TrEMBL record:
Coiled coil: none annotated. Keywords: Kinase, Transferase, Two-component regulatory system. This is GAF domain-containing protein. The lineage of its organism: Bacteria, Bacillati, Actinomycetota, Actinomycetes, Kitasatosporales. InterPro entries: GAF (IPR003018), GAF-like_dom_sf (IPR029016), HATPase_C_sf (IPR036890), Sensor_HK_TwoCompSys (IPR050482), Sig_transdc_His_kin_sub3_dim/P (IPR011712). SUPFAM superfamilies: ATPase domain of HSP90 chaperone/DNA topoisomerase II/histidine kinase, GAF domain-like. Residues 125-268 form the GAF domain. GO terms for cellular component: membrane. It comes from Streptomyces roseirectus.
Length: 477
């Protein structure tokens, strides 16, 4: 017989505060001379000779049930008074256990909210921030799946983060405004579905495995950010009023943390662009002008040179200077390009990420492409590839101390299961992965790939003797 998780937690709470519910039936058996007795939660007493309701702090819990006496004697008023005393003691123990469990549950949700806020403010990737919220909501609500949905570009809601303990086909789905529930969610309302498999309001096709679903708005800074969803497995109890209130407070705290994290990223991004603008000005005002002056000087020396070999050598130097000036001007243009001016093609966005990484690295990583990246790679896979590229470049900068990084985006790759896909390879010549080093970045890459049906791993780098690290991330289109 399956044990209700809520009942199991209540019994655990009874033990933790010193209550022993099993002692009540044992006492009844000893005092009343009955062969069997039990406390049935939510039972109606059918099959027993006597069943007396138990109330815990005014709320019904179940019944103390007694079997018939072997000699057939009926229960008299004295017996009933004794049973009522035992029932009162049981109700008191159960009520205290419920209060204890409610306090522990509130503590779990508060600790979860604090952990989410800390993680969001420490992470510089908005997609990772949403995933953190989904993971925490799933764990705290004891749900099978946690999701975060944001308003889609055209209409409806897009599932941008999924926490389900494995691969999920929900990621990237756009739910159109096709029923009143989606409209209500977009208006910032909450919703409770008792059984997703039979409720006509269900908003996705993957509902057979789910029972109760709780959908809460994420509001912060006076605006609607999205919807947080928690879906329990079929057969699990629905969300109680106390659980809904705790989840509602968690959603409010998570939304505020998302807004704070977004503001922090904006400040950091502004600082980066200010620094890039300063570097661009220095390159233009100092380096390019000096190179141009040197080129003019060499051009005059070339005209005055008598020996043909000298003129030819100086001419090659002038040509190289011209090429160098053009490359620096292209770099200046890239540095001054604002975030809203970047074209939407994946190839351009990859090049932009590589160019931005050059500022903290002190050098520009190599980058090449294979296949028609822009035409083959879908939007969801492309967004996750860019996030994986940022993570890999960040790891190289923070931990590898590399002097060379090569980035390859191959849209002609074949995945291990035979499906076509895209493969991102980031190789460096740094110090490699140490035995006791942090692996959170690598775990993020694995999680992103697996959520799309792909994989991620690492191996030797491109340094001498295989030094450094090569990160390979791949996913279907």
């Amino acid at each position: 017989m399956a044990v209700d998780p809520a009942e199991s937690r209540l019994l655990e709470a009874l033990r933790s505060i010193g209550g022993d519910l099993d002692r009540i039936p044992a006492t009844a058996m000893a005092l009343l001379g009955v062969p069997d007795a039990a406390v049935e939660a939510d039972g109606d007493g059918s099959g027993w000779a006597l069943a007396v309701p138990i109330h815990a702090h005014g709320e019904p819990y179940g019944s103390l049930c007694l079997a018939a006496r072997p000699d057939g004697r009926p229960f008299d008023d004295a017996d009933l008074d004794l049973v009522r005393v035992l029932v009162g003691e049981a109700g008191l123990a159960i009520g205290n256990a419920r209060l204890h469990e409610a306090a522990r549950q509130r503590e779990r949700w508060i600790d979860g909210s604090v952990a989410v806020t800390t993680a969001l403010l420490a992470d510089d990737d908005p997609d990772d921030a949403l995933q953190v919220v989904a993971e925490a909501a799933r764990t705290l609500a004891e749900a099978a799946t946690g999701v975060v949905m944001l308003p889609a570009e055209n209409s409806g809601l897009e599932i941008v983060a999924v926490a389900s303990g494995g691969r999920s086909e929900l990621l990237g789905q756009v739910i159109p405004v096709g029923n009143d529930l989606v409209k209500a969610l977009l208006d910032g309302q909450e919703a409770l579905i008792d059984d997703a498999s039979s409720d006509p309001r269900s908003i996705t096709s993957h509902t057979d495995e789910y029972g109760a679903v709780l959908l809460l708005p994420l509001r912060g800074d006076g605006r609607f950010l999205g919807t947080l969803g928690m879906a329990r497995a079929s057969g699990r109890p629905t969300f109680s009023a106390a659980e809904r209130e705790l989840a509602r407070r968690f959603a409010e705290q998570a939304a505020l943390a998302l807004v704070a994290a977004e503001a922090q990223r904006d400040r950091e991004r502004l600082a980066v662009f200010e620094e890039r603008d300063r570097i661009a000005r220095d390159l233009h005002d100092l380096v390019v002008q000096r190179l141009f002056t040197i080129g003019l000087t060499l051009g005059g020396a070339q005209r005055e040179a008598v020996t043909p070999e000298v003129r030819e050598g100086v001419g090659r130097a002038v040509d190289e200077l011209d090429v160098t000036i053009q490359e620096i001007r292209a770099a200046i243009f890239a540095l001054r390009q604002g975030p809203g001016e970047a074209p939407s093609e994946l190839r351009t966005r990859v090049l932009r990420e590589v160019a931005m990484a050059a500022v903290p690295l002190g050098f520009t990583p190599g980058c090449r492409f294979a296949g028609d990246v822009d035409a083959l790679v879908g939007e969801v896979t492309g967004k996750n590839l860019l996030a994986a590229l940022r993570e890999a470049l960040s790891n190289s900068f923070r931990h590898a101390h590399a002097s060379r990084i090569d980035v390859v985006v191959d849209a002609t790759a074949t995945l291990p299961d035979g499906r076509p896909g895209v493969r991102l390879t980031v190789a460096d010549d740094g110090v490699g992965i140490t035995g006791g080093g942090r692996r959170s970045g690598l775990l993020n890459l694995v999680r992103r790939a697996e959520s799309l049906g792909g994989a991620s791993g690492h191996g030797p780098g491109i340094g001498a003797g295989g030094g450094g690290t090569t990160v390979v991330w791949e996913a279907p289109y």
